[in-house]
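Below: protein 1.
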Amino acid sequence: MPIAANTRFGPYEIIAPIGAGGMGEVYRARDTRLGREVAIKVLPAAFAADADRLRRFEQEARATAALNHPNILAVYDIGTCERSPYVVSELLEGETLRQQLQSGALATRKALEMAQQVVSGLAAAHDKGIIHRDLKPENLFITRDGRLKILDFGLAKLTEPQAALGSMAVTAEGATDPGTVLGTMGYMSPEQVRGQATDARSDIFSFGAILYEMLSGKRAFHGATSADTISAILKEDPPDLVETNRTVSPALERIVRHCMAKNPEQRFHSARDIGFALEGLSTASSAPLPAVGEESPKPGVRWIAPLAIACAALAGVLAIGRYSAPVGNVASAVPDIHQLTFGNGYITSAGFSPDGQTIIYAAAWAGKPEEIFATSAKSPESRSLELKNAILLAVSSEGQMAVKLHPNTFGAFARPGTLATLPLTGGAPRELLNDVEAADFSTDGSQLAVVQRVNGQFSLQYPVGKVLFTSPLWISHPRISPNGTRVAFLNHPFGGDEGSVMVAEKSGTVRELSSGWLTLQGLAWSPDGKELWFSGTRVGLNRALYAVTLEGKERVVLRVPGQVTLRELSPSGQALISEAFDHLMLRGKVSGAADERDLSVFDAGVPAALSLDGKMLLMTEVGEAGGQGYSVYLRPTDGSPATRLGEGLACDLSGDGKLALSRTFTKPAKLLLLPTLGAPQEIATGNIEPGCGHFVPGGKNIVFTGEEADHKAGLYLLELSAGAVPKLIARILAADPLSPAVTKDGKFALAPDASGKFWFYPIAGGEARPALGLLPDDSIAGAGSGSTLYVYHQSAPPQVIFELDAATGQRRPWKELGPADRSGATNTFFAVVAPDGNSYAYTYDRILSELYLVKGLK
């Protein structure tokens, strides 16, 4: 019997039925705690007595809850009410792939887009040892905004991956014995219909059958009876796709056939491999595909693109030596370069073992979280140290590793986690300190320097507990000098990776050695302790390797194409350097559009504001194309060419879209008014050095953050007229270069007070009111009507934007952002939401890097 409306399952109130299936009934419900609508799958009490059905139902919840991926249904909760178990998940609006296929085959391009989302979700599940075992069009749901979600892991089987010798990992017991047939006829693999043991390749077979149906409009295996269908799965191949769809290329046909091979050994061995094959197909053949019967490319032609890529990669490696030839004060010796890694992803840290022969590094390969590996110059192979979701911080002379466990993103780059140590020879990590950003060992391994986030501030401590320097935003790369008397570090006063090279004496004196860097990462002492080597650039994103003396004299050590990051210097002068190609990808979706659009202009776009109608995006180009000091662009969201308005960091766009506001990186900083037609104008702020600002609706006033000569930070109101003087609204924590939020009605500005607590400050004067529900690591993407805020934690994709009612503290998920392919995708950040909540834009960082051992640098 259907469950009546208003029935309560814990905090969830039933609204209406959605559907029913073999695993239970599904209802629309309201989460009374968070004020959001959810879906509840309920297993009737009569079925709960069936131990096997109950086990499978609970397994669905466990399996799906273990996954966090944009192409897999999100599970929020599980419970039991009056002997009826239930699972709470996100509520989806849209239709199943089966419903879409009722109209026939999909367009080839759309089928490929759907297929790539399926394999992306499957890869995430398979990486956690979970196979679906019941893939079919009914279990693939397409939301109204075009996102595909895999449903119903009710038949999922938790498989036990091959563990390394000595691993203490605990894996779940298999849910189904060989000999039991589970699945849906027509999409089951041959091993499934035989009742044999299955693995991820069974899902790949089912995926192939689904892709065949998307392209042809007909089922791959379908007979008059179940026996006929089974016979077709075991013995027959479906008709060629080109018989029903002449736009299917031979390469795509081969991918589908490869998925549906009868023998599992002859299929793709991973969903990720399929994703690479499909991505290569879509990027290499964006031109119309030749019709059947047209002349095929000559055999040698297909090798041109791979050969060009290989030559380009080789040229990049050779360029390291070529570009290190004498140029000005660049060292004259040609260094010896040896590539150490060969992955699809990015390096996060690296260091030498005490004997200098083994290299320990952390990397995120193929979209997986960071993991720590060991390798050497003698072998191209890397060995996992079975430390997952961990980052290497340092290796001591005594063979101890300092690692950061379970890092959490804070701001654009900082990722505090739990500091732990363990021997290189293996063993369980010994946890020492929470909220640690970075650490380094002294030369004798007896002491640690750490950067720790304490009470909202980053503090440099050496030794642990003795604070030498603090900053509200980000400190990185502490490095203890060879003699142990001082510690160098990078200071990032605006929270990004811009900043200065600093050195702190153990006595407490702090000095700035080199400043003005737009991107600054990587730091090490020279073996003699007379210089600090670091990687940075004052223009764009492509860092070079520099050295600076303790007296502040700089020199170039190495400049190459791409982005260089110094990871470590050995006592003998060998360097570990990663070379990366880093792109900040800018995407967005505007009101009325069905899908997101690529809004990038060059290599590194950061969104600042959207016009009220969502037709214009104000952005900053912070990469090579942005030049020194960055550039501000106005970008039509329909794909039309962008217009450069001026320099600096883009802050806000006026309501009518005719004026932009930017902040320069000069000393002192300036606020600029950038008309869409006309010359830039400096805004006089008196003796206040400004952060960024925001237009008050109406366009006659701005609100900005700033710092006075006595270093007191404030929130100010300034009329845009000659001779106007800034008016203090409130004292705040820091002059953050990012804009304060202004409510849609223009009555309030949102900023943190001197203690870090956020308040709505009346712009016209009056009593402030607290903003409830904001968490310490929240970033604000925009302000809507009333007390509505759009907030998020900067993190690796997928990025969830929440809609927060700051009057009550209630929040609900609003959008999930990020690319389907997460290889090399590090952070999703700098999201902006238009005041009406109908348009948004965001940037995510895609880095592809490799690690090199370099000898002979001077």
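Below: protein 2.
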Amino acid sequence: MDDRVEALERWLAQQFAGIPFELASASEDASFRRYFRARLADGRSFIAMDAPPGKEDCAPFVRVARLLRDAGVNAPQVHAEDLAQGFLLLADLGTRTFLAALEERNANALMHDATEALVRWQLATRTGNLPPYDEALLRREMQLFPDWYVARHLGRSLTAAQQRVLEGIVALLASSALAQPQVYVHRDYMPRNLMLCEPNPGVLDFQDAVIGPITYDMVSLVRDAFLSWDEERVLDWTVRYWERAKKAALPVERDFAEFWRAFEWMGLQRHLKVLGIFARLTYRDGKPQYVADTPRFVQYARAVAGRYPRLAPLLRLLDEIEGRAPQAGYSF
């Protein structure tokens, strides 16, 4: 055991008031946080978070967990906290994620539950509770694409002309995101972070929540990092969310075509960001398993760019940096 685990066990022994327990790894994520399942001799089970101070801050997790629970969303209750040491004791929402559970027969039901929870979260939006998803953050995220995916993963340097093309795309995507109605945004609302439990779903990994574009969490849900759905199903789920959001008086576009365009452009911003993040996880953080899913995001990006003339220059840029033969039909 490392020193952090030993310190965590001492802290948990105090929280459990002498009741014997066993500690086992529950999961790790893309950050420096680690999660352990503590099983007590009396049959209870909890999740302990280890978030090393200086690398992670537990305070946003505690704050957003409270906001989610106040909104009627099943986020884990925080039973105990030690922010100085970076330890949290959380309710255990189980072991089965949506990512593991989703299959043909239950996909519609699980996506219904996920969108119902998302609408409750968005309806709870209040200004001043979360930081804004502002232009600086949007651009900083998209900068991960040239810095880590292009330069480090592909080993290429953008020419001046390619940089201008990318800057034009970044400006379009940032402008579209900022023009959307602003609501609470989980920022990683995807099947891997949703737990199959009662009430369904349990929601995890929400500490980076912001106030931002209303389409962001929905596109994260249906254009996932680790599994892909056919476009007909993505469209159907998105229409159902849009109809539910309208009925709940959320500020979605009244014209679904406009909502869909904003949804797709928001997704493209995220796809570029994730390409950079997955490369950074591989080359900086020693977590190579993520880069295997980069082709999925390249395909997402290509599909969206191919549907909108103003985004078509991105297709040529992707061809150039990947060494592909140019495609016909680019629009400029």
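The chain has two domains: 3-91, 98-322.
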